[in-house]
Amino acid sequence: MTAADTQEAAGPPAPPVPRDPKGTDGRPTPGNGTVRATGKRRRKKGELLPFLLILPAIIAIAAVYAFPLTKTVIMSFQDMGRRELWTGESPPWVGFEQFTNILGDSEFWSVTGRTVLFMAVCVGLTMAIGLLVAMMMTRLSTWVRLTLTAALIAAWSMPLMVAASIFRWLSDSDYGLLNTLIAKVVGEDFLGHNWFLDPWQGFAIITLLVVWGAVPFVVITLYAALTQVPRELEEAAALDGANVRGIFRYVTWPVIRPVFVMVTTLSVIWDFNVFGQIWLLRGNKPEPEYETLGLYSFSKAFESTSFSQGTAIALITVLLLSGVAVFYLRQLMKTGEVE
Amino acid sequence: MTTSTSTAPAPVPATPPAIVKQKLRPDRKKSRGVYDVLGLLFAVVMAFPVYWLVISSLRPNHEIRSYDQTLWPSSLTFDNFARAVEQPNFSTAVQSSLIVSVTAVVGGMIIATLAALAIGRFRFFGRRALLMVLILVQMLPPTAMLIPIYAQLNAMGGLDEYWGLIVVYLVSTLPFAIIMIRGFVVNIPVELEESAMVDGCTRMGAFRRVIFPLLAPGLAAASIFALVNAWNEYLFAYILINDNSKYTLNVWLMTFTTERGTDYGALMASSTLIALPVVVFFMIIQKKMATGLTSGAVKG
Fold first, then answer.
1. Cβ A187 vs Cβ A240: under 8 Å
2. Residue A21, helix vs strand vs coil
3. How far is B215 from chain A (nearest CA, A)?
4. Domain residue ranges in chain B
5. Least confident stretch, B23-27, B35-39, B271-275
6. Of the candidates B10, B64, B132, which has its C-beta nearest A338's C-beta?
7. What is the CA radius of gyration of chain B?
8. What tens digit of pLDDT does each residue of A161-194 get?
9. SS3 annotation, B256-287
10. What pLDDT, in 10s, does the model give residues B50-60?
């Protein structure tokens, strides 16, 4: 099914239009396969309209996404530094030099590994907690569900900056609640413990922050999907002797799967691009061992002022993520979302 | 009335899905209590950081700078809020945030609605490609855009100007807003529009009298979502604006951290002020959000 004409051909004859003397005042109604189109002029208008409607969006997206992306590609093959930025001279072409430098740099690989690991842990935790809590929500008393929803929304609506500030405060080495509570258990020695000296511990705090911020969206979205599962089917499956796991696998899961996949993919992308949380928890000056790909690209561009290095790293990140993106699109097409 | 072919990808019920009231089987009742306890526990865990934010903002400073943090403050004070509001550039930061977010959202919503109508109501050449582009665009890491946008704005003299930030925010809300509004458009039965046109409305009239009123709640949800995103954005605001009299609130928050440490009391108080409008807005739209997000996906 592509164009409107197949629609029109396939459609049943339109009901006779009541001739309302006041109504149509001679103006043709541009139909989109609903009212039988007769005049050529009318068809044309109907076909042009959607393009006119999407034009502003296309222009805007081209200006802020397509153009910079093209520029990213171009800059990656040049050597743009601070001087070129301020003088406006065109930077020298260096071919694949930026890429060979980056790919031959062991630091780049450790940053990539760190990014992927961090993303995997965050997504795994977020989706597991999210699904369990969403399923639990279908079995709660109304007042508990409302309380939980309120708590989730309160967490969800915390601006990233605010959330990062709270977690910085909670994990503060001198006055943070975390140290106070742990010191009560393991003893006074723990007071003044700096969570960010060891990147593993630091990333544990960052993961907590990311998962805490992401779970509400996942729970609420999955819960909305779960309410679409026909109760009768679950009941029927239960009557036919399916156990809890069977009901989930054969009744619930097929219904929520598209949403689950969508949310997972979004989480993968978001967590891969986590920037602000790390940036802020490290007080705008992340140490090298806290750099994920986004931060790495950023520091190369703005601190070492090698903009081309930064864009080349960003481009590699885009390529890495494009695999995820393609998978996501295929899933969407399967579920008929992109029709 | 015979229904003609609809342009929506699938037959869509006339009303958006309501949350289904669930009947309980008797054997579920027993496990109810266990789930309720677990649910409340999880609610406490999720809400705790928010509680800590609010409570810290109301504590006297000697309690904040204490090695023995208590879960309950001994007394409440507004000193922190006073310090927060007296911090230089507070009012200009509020102004900047409002100007940038509101302008970006109003512009973004107009453009997004037009595009969503086209995608939700017409089948045209390139429609699928456009949807794919929208989805893909959301996956681009912000840093990939940041450097060229910075260089470009620098060349155009758009650094330290509101408009540069507005354009970036406006466009970054588009993909999600278009997809979300399209979800609401698809939920409006095409027959309504048809019958309005049969009764003599033009397409524009049908939109104004029939579609728009039905779309309004969805639009409100999408705008609030976009507003929250713009309000919360940090990275671009930090990089594109260097003039501290034009800082947005998020960037201004960083001024509480100096070499001498962080004034957590004032930081928490200002954070509360920043988060408050967002929380209220979120409460209003949360149901709509989930519906808008899942309506297309679940119903295919």
1. no
2. coil
3. 17
4. 30-76, 88-293
5. B23-27
6. B132
7. 24
8. 899 999 999 998 888 898 888 888 887 777 788 8
9. HEECCEECHHHHHHHHHHHHHHHHHHHHHHHH
10. 999 999 999 88
Q: What is the largest CA-CA distance in chain A?
A: 90
Fold annotation for B88-293: MetI-like fold (1.10.3720)
Interval A261-266 mean pLDDT:
85
Please report, for chain A, the start and end positions of each structural domain, with discontinuous segments joined by +: 107-337
Please answer whether residues A258 and A335 qualify as being in contact, where contact means their C-beta atoms are separated by less than 8 angstroms. Answer: yes
Q: Which CATH number fits domain A107-337: 1.10.10.10, 1.10.287.990, 1.10.3720.10, 1.10.357.140?
A: 1.10.3720.10
Give the pLDDT confidence score for residue A179 in this predicted structure: 87
Chain B positions touching A259 (Cβ under 8 A) are 294, 297-298
Burial class (CB in 10 A: 0-12, 13-18, 19+), B259: exposed
Residues found in chain B: 300
Residue B174 near residue B112 (C-beta atoms within 8 A): yes
| Mean pLDDT for the stretch of residues B198-219 | 85
Alpha carbons A274 and A287: distance in angstroms, whole number: 15
Angle between helices A307-334 and A67-76 (to 10 degrees): 130
Partner B contacted by A152 (CB < 8 A): yes
CB contact under 8 A, A63 and B167: yes
Q: pLDDT band for A230, please (50, 70, 90 cuts).
A: confident
pLDDT tens-digit readout, B159-174? 889 999 999 999 988 9
Residue A154 confidence (pLDDT) above 50: yes
Q: What's the rounded Cα separation, in Å, for the pair A162 and A281?
A: 11
Nearest CA to A312 among A38, A61, A147, A78?
A78
Residues of A in contact with B134 (CB under 8 A): 61
| Six-digit token string for A132 | 């369990």
pLDDT higher than threshold 50 for residue B298? no
Determine the pLDDT at residue B77. Answer: 86
A70-112, pLDDT tens digit by residue? 888 888 898 888 777 777 777 888 888 889 888 988 899 999 9
> A11 to chain B: which residues are within 8 Å by CB?
4-5
Residues of A in contact with B121 (CB under 8 A): 32, 50
Helix spans in A62-105 (H): 67-76, 82-87, 97-103
Alpha-carbon gap, residue B290 to B282, rounded angstroms: 12
